[in-house]
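ok trying this again, last paste got cut off
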Amino acid sequence: MAPPESRTPQIDLAHRVAGELSLVDGVVAVVLGGSVARGQANLASDVDLGIYYRPDEPPSLDALRAVASRLDDRRRGGRCHRVR
């Protein structure tokens, strides 16, 4: 966890989302990337997260969508897509 003086809204959001994703069967790790990971984010920066999983035991796309739906305060839907 980041020291209190380096906490940003993006870091807090990343922790919250990573915590939810870590509960999904098949998720092995959640990594932070982009400007937030580099410490170059500003208040308008987005949060880039990657999910690691075993190819032979991938997480359910429906389970990932359920997490996204729970966390999406704008209720936009359709934000989870499998990337190969």
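PB: full thing came through this time. The longest strand covers residues 27-33.
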